Structure formats: C-alpha cells, structure tokens
Amino acid sequence: MNTSIVGKQFELTEAIKGYIEGGFDSLSKYSLDIISARAVITADEKKGRKGFGVELIINLAHMDTVVIKQKEKDLYAAVDLAVERAKKVLRRHHDKVTAHRTKTEETPSVKEVAEKIDGVDEIVPMELDLYKPMEIEEALEKLKESGRQFLVFNDQEAKLRVLYKRTDEKFGLY
User: Fold this and answer.
1) How far apart are CA 58 and CA 31, in angstroms?
2) pTM above 0.70, yes or no
3) CA distance to 133, 160, 174, per residue, from 152 (Å)
C-alpha cells in the first residue's frame, strides 16, 4: 500500500506522520486490496477559532475511491474519527464481499441437496397436496393408506395441520 501524508497550511511533525501511518496500518486488517492511501491535513482558523481538517483518500482495487473528510478542534481527534469512519466503510465492504452470497449463488433446491448427500438415507422431494381442505378423519385414512410417518394438510378452517404416527401406534395432530 502506497501512503502519502500532506500538510496544507500546516507543518507536519514526525509524531503526526507516525500517528497517521499507524491509522493506515490498522486499515490493512480487512484484507482488501488497498492500492494507496493519502491523508491531507489542513489547519483552519475561522472567527478566531483554530481547527484541523483531515481528508483520507483510499484507493481500492475493483471499487471506487473512498474519501472521508473530518474537521475537529484537535488534530489527533480528527485523525482518530476519520480513521474510524474509514474502518467502518472498509468493514462493510469486506463483509459484503466475504459473507453475502452473490446473485449467481442461489439457494439449492431440495433435489440438489438430496443428490449431494452421500452415505445418508435418500431424500425424496415431494409436492404437498395442500390445495383442497380435508376433514381430520379423511386425512387419517389417507395417512393409514399411504404408510408414511406424517401428513401435512389444511383442515376445513384453513389451518395448516400435521397428522403423524406415534411410536405407540397411535396418531398425533398438530
């Protein structure tokens, strides 16, 4: 990472340069490809008040340039706030790049997951017959005939229900 520290209307000391370079070094922890970082320090005096302005310009590969401007009465406070804001921007970009799925990576379907699982009981995707409401007795008969462990259906009041076989050979209803 190329770094540049410039003072406008202000003479930079080695202590200030070292402090700003330490702030730049803390930005490298996000593992982003930072091409260059530049700090422009200005001293302002308006209405008898002294103040300092810090402008950080960070060039990233494959991303637009990040520009952060911060003004404070104290130079070190201005540098700290500007570096914290830069960390926030870089952290958000890092999280976006590493944690979030891109649009090309879609959630796999049940069938795709079933095909990828080796050594596990076979997963068979099924369509649910939820379209017409059923009486509980009708669902019980359908479950007995099918030999399955459970049946999902809508009852006459349009509630989603689950009828299942228990281990004691009785049936349960959610």
Assistant:
1) 14
2) no
3) 11, 7, 9
Residue 60, token pair as written in the block: 């990233």
Q: How many angstroms separate the CA atoms of 29 and 106, rounded?
A: 29
Contact 66, 86 (CB under 8 A): yes
Q: Average pLDDT in the 50-64 region? A: 87
Q: What's the sign of the alpha-carbon dihedral 145, 149, 152, 153? A: positive
Report the CATH architecture of 122-173. Answer: 2-Layer Sandwich (3.30)
The string of pLDDT tens digits covering residues 35-51 is 889 999 999 887 778 89
Q: pLDDT per residue over 118-157, tens digit each? A: 555 666 666 655 567 888 888 888 888 888 888 888 888 8
Which residue type occupies 95?
D
Fold of 2-98: Double Stranded RNA Binding Domain (3.30.160)
Rounded-to-integer distance, Cα 174 and Cα 100, Å: 36
Structural contact between residues 123 and 114, judged by C-beta atoms closer than 8 angstroms: yes
